[in-house]
Amino acid sequence: MTLLRVENLAIDVARDGGSCRLVHDAHFTVDRGETVAIVGESGSGKSLTALAVMGLLGEGLSVSGGHILFEGEDLTRISPRAHNDLRGNGIAMIFQEPMTSLNPVRSIEHQLTEGMRLKMGLNRKAARARALDLLNEVGISDPERRLKQYPHQLSGGMRQRVMIAIALSCEPRLILADEPTTALDVTIQAQILALTSRLCRDHGVGLVLITHNLGIVARHAQNVAVMYGGRVVERATARQLYREPRHPYTQGLLASVPRLDLPRDTPLQPVPGAPPDPTVALPGCRFHPRCPKATDVCSERVPEFTISEGHEVACWNAGETVPTKKGAAA
Amino acid sequence: MSDARPLLEVENLHVDFPIRRGLLQRTVGVVRAVGGVSFSIPRGTSFGLVGESGCGKTTVARAVLQLVEASAGSIRFDGEDIARMDAPALQRFRGRVQAVFQDPFSSLNPRMSTGRIISEPLRVHRLRPESEIKAEVARLLDICGLPSRFADLYPHEMSGGQRQRVGIARALAMSPELIVCDEAVSALDVSIQAQIINLLEDLQKELGLTYLFIGHDLSVVRHICDQVGVMYLGRMVENAASDPLFADPRHPYTRALIDAVPNPDPDYESGREIVPLEGEVPSPADPPSGCFFHPRCPLATNQCKNEVPRLDPVEPGHFAACWETGAPVPAT
Hints:
The complex is a heterodimer of chains A (330) and B (332).
Chain A: E1 2-15, E2 18-31, E3 35-39, H1 46-54, E4 61-70, E5 73-74, H2 80-86, E6 91-94, H3 98-101, H4 108-119, H5 124-137, H6 143-148, H7 156-169, E7 174-178, H8 186-203, E8 206-211, H9 214-220, E9 223-228, E10 231-237, H10 238-243, H11 248-256, E11 305-308, E12 311-314, H12 325-329
Parallel strand pairs in A: 3-8, 3-9, 6-7, 7-8
Antiparallel strand pairs in A: 1-2, 1-4, 4-5, 9-10, 10-12, 11-12
Helix pairs in contact in A: 4-5, 4-7, 5-7, 7-8
Chain B: E1 8-21, E2 26-41, E3 46-50, H1 57-64, E4 72-77, E5 80-81, H2 87-96, E6 97-100, H3 114-124, H4 130-143, H5 160-172, E7 178-182, H6 190-207, E8 210-214, H7 218-224, E9 227-232, E10 235-241, H8 242-247, H9 252-260, H10 266-270, H11 302-306, E11 312-315, E12 318-320
Parallel strand pairs in B: 3-8, 3-9, 6-7, 7-8
Antiparallel strand pairs in B: 1-2, 1-4, 4-5, 9-10, 10-12, 11-12
């Protein structure tokens, strides 16, 4: 069953009396127990999309179109109070920077049990017992002592484990993880991602993994949506996307990362130029100024989606596909 | 490409930071940020330093740049010990070595135009008469891939990639021989990162630059560097040319670091079972005994707990500091 379906989501920011569109068209679906990655660079709109699902868009930001269907209910139409009721026990979020997303003046126990007491109606004792179980589950040793501590007494990796425990605490059906390991070292990153994936699989929780790291996507996600300039430009299973990227931007991304499994002198082919400024109107495909395949139509009309074998791409010139280097060698 | 004498030789470098406590700020102990690191960089090549936060890689870079003082050991630049340089020699040294930092948002002065940022070193060191500065700034911008009109822009008017190009242009203004790149591409988006990596490589070829490249992204470091040193808690645990280091890592820590990097290939990744390294890096203020890695090491023995392994050759040119895997395997 589809747990989350985001359709044609648009997000605007109020600006100088008018409004400016930051997200033009985000769409993807997540099933129970499935991991979907949203890949994109800064400013692609991937974090805003997650915040819209959470109902946590900041001041001046608003959903201006589309639907967010969570278990069939449209979150763009429900009251802030109803949205609040869903947070924690329906949808939970793991943020990027565990130092700034944990409250520095509250103990770990307070922060970990707060949700359970509010949302699940547990009393102090029951919440504390569950908190100890959760800390064990996320691999924190000596949980009794850790409960009494404050965020600054924990390492970065441990703080992110606490964040995961908080996200899991009210038994959500969906977790949104926004760059959960960007601030962590590689060995800790591997621990945290393996843990998050395993827990979501075991508990049947849908996971939306927002990242810019193509290696993490390949390792942890079953399905991928690639965002560029506020639009989802390609959507496929992870295997399809890496074997046969169809959008020139996805192809460019894959050709621009150095990788350990190719010879050291494999040249990098960067995407020229820089991502578009969201405040400047840009007709047609948002990628056309940087696109090696751009034709006249690209600067005039927004490309429509074409779908074949479940592989969706929004590009006027995606007809011919360029196999990746790996594919050609295989 | 390389001369007989390396451009930079770091020998047994130690950097200690005092721990001060109490009203009188008495020194009650030291944190050994760098504990006996040696390496050398031949002219025109790139040396990479990798390791996790707190391993001392940035402190090594800062010691080379003379931003922190070495507690022991020596740093020789072009054969000359920088600790013994007199003022004029040190002044020359500061021009011959330049740095590019991680965050192009905080390493450029927001109140200065690009033109002033790039020309400041030229003015301070009186390298060019005022009449030539404008043309020189345009030339520097051009070799970093920016049009000359960028000289009038301020940092906030540029994207992250453009700012990093300005940071590189500023470093090049002194016509340096060695550039210390401290996480110089880490803060950039994927598609921009590749542009800057290619720029650094092109500049190296054209200008014969030597790089000391500090990074935590192993695939980037492997791509850029000819030789790589792996640091853990202030000590160098492995040092080898890039290809043998990544193809055949000898230290269990290097192995774990490489294993932890996910490759952008779902087929490869789904067939790979990695055992993530357990635990976390201990505090440098209270390091373990013996080999610093032993509490997290799957191969640790009693010897590892008690004795510090030396960085010994395991193959010609490939050094590893490990009791279990370090010594060359004797032929049976």
